[in-house]
DNA sequence: CGGGATCCAAGTGTGGATCCAC
DNA sequence: GTGGATCCACACTTGGATCCCG
């Protein structure tokens, strides 16, 4: 196997490929794919995610489509500690800052993105160099009724504020499982939004993120499976 | 003088700068600005335009704003033969392919772009190497009533077809002074548009262009002034 | 600990236009 | 001659996320 894989044609095929890379280190996988490792994790924040995209046949760098568009599955790597506990929140998608009337959960990007996800744990303890980090066992997941209800409640609360032009008042404290945080090159970045009076204004771009307590619960149901 | 100039603060200041570079070759101007010439004109299609932007203090590579936004003036280089006759049509702006109801000329990008233009003739005969091409004398222009009427008539005819989803039927034969032609990296490029039934479809991106007979008339009123 | 700040790659779109086969 | 095709640069956006100070 060398170079990027073609798109998988079914969920079982995708799961089989994920099983095939479980236990490998990022260095091993990078060598197989002919990719070089970034010098450090600061300058290579997205490296692990892009590496497994190539390995599993995701249409790399594509647009609002799911990673595996034929089969409607989104791929998310999950940085975990040695104990298999998520170390970071998970980015979902950008926040639509120009929303005016309160939109419907049914039509939301958050619901579409999270409808079907292949979670792939990857070791990410700060002291462990990129090269030695190992890939865990994947979990193919859809939200159950309780999870979807919590996601929806958080999303509706947050989107109501945005539709009212209150985005500047939102902090990452809000939302029990889904939060809104900055998503930008730096704090000076600006995107078009709407203020309290409906006037178009420049504002900091933001994204929806899943709290790590939420992804921890997903992993807890099925052992993350980092080989020892 | 070295590096790009700051924005001019008035039309007379802009005209004075243009007079200052009239008669210079592209090689001379490039050396003053510390820029290197492209190998050939095929790979350097936009070079002359970008060079004079720097020389005159246009906010290079900026967005839908006029080149000189403070004073509301657009800069257009005009490739001319040894006789001062325009050799090419002039690109104005992209065609809004998603327009539904027929929009108003008053609000159009074409009218805004052409409201005030500094035309700068530049020698461009095919046999003349980039380095030896000379810059002519600038003309600061606004459309007179007759010119605006022709532009408006062409624009309204073309935009009506686009609003009806007939963009695929438009050819460069239409329009007495303003035409629609492809504006893309190649013929496979696609942008969102609307078909006859109002359905969103992928279509070839297009731009508005001024026929060279139109720009020739502008130059004819005031001698292009390539020094001999 | 975690909320706010930041980092990289690649795709897309726009602005500058001229090329070239028919 | 000119209508359809193409070329370059670079700003902007999105998708991949983790960093790091209070």
Task: Please sum up the structure shown.
Two copies of one chain form a homodimer. Chain A has about 230 residues and is of the alpha+beta class.
Structure commentary:
Two copies of one chain form a homodimer. The first copy, chain A, has one domain: 3-Layer(aba) Sandwich (ECO RV Endonuclease, Chain A), CATH 3.40.600.10. Chain A is built from six helices and eight strands, in the order αααββαββαββββα. The mean pLDDT of chain A is 92. In chain A, the strands form three sheets. A three-stranded mixed β-sheet of chain A has the order 1-3-4, with helices on both faces. The first copy, chain A, has a three-stranded antiparallel β-sheet with strand order 2-8-5. Chain A is globular. In chain A, 28% of the residues lie in helices and 18% in strands. The first copy, chain A, has 228 residues and is of the alpha+beta class. The chains hardly touch. Chain A binds a DNA duplex (22 and 22 nucleotides) through residues 38, 41-50, 53, 60-64, 67, 77, 79, 87-91, 93-94, 124, 126, 171-173, 179, 181-187, 191, 204-205, 211-212.
């Amino acid at each position: 196997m060398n170079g990027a894989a073609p798109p998988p044609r079914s969920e079982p095929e995708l799961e089989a490929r994920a099983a095939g890379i479980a236990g490998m280190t990022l260095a091993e996988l990078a060598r197989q794919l002919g990719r070089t490792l970034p010098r450090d994790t600061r300058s290579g924040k997205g490296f692990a995610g892009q590496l497994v995209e190539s390995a599993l046949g995701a249409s790399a760098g594509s647009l609002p489509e799911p990673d595996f568009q034929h089969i409607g599955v989104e791929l998310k790597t999950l940085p975990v500690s040695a104990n298999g506990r998520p170390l970071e929140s998970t980015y979902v998608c950008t926040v639509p800052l120009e929303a005016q009337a309160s939109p419907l959960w049914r039509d939301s990007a958050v619901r579409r993105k999270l409808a079907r996800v292949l979670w792939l744990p990857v070791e990410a303890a700060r002291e462990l160099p990129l090269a030695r980090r190992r890939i865990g066992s994947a979990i193919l997941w859809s939200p159950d009724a309780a999870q979807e209800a919590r996601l929806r409640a958080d999303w509706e609360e947050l989107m109501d504020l945005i539709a009212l032009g209150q985005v500047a008042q939102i902090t990452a404290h809000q939302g029990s499982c889904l939060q809104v945080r900055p998503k930008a090159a730096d704090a000076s970045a600006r995107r078009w939004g709407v203020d309290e009076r409906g006037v178009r204004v420049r504002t900091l771009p933001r994204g929806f993120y899943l709290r790590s307590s939420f992804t921890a619960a997903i992993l807890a149901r099925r052992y993350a499976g980092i080989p020892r």
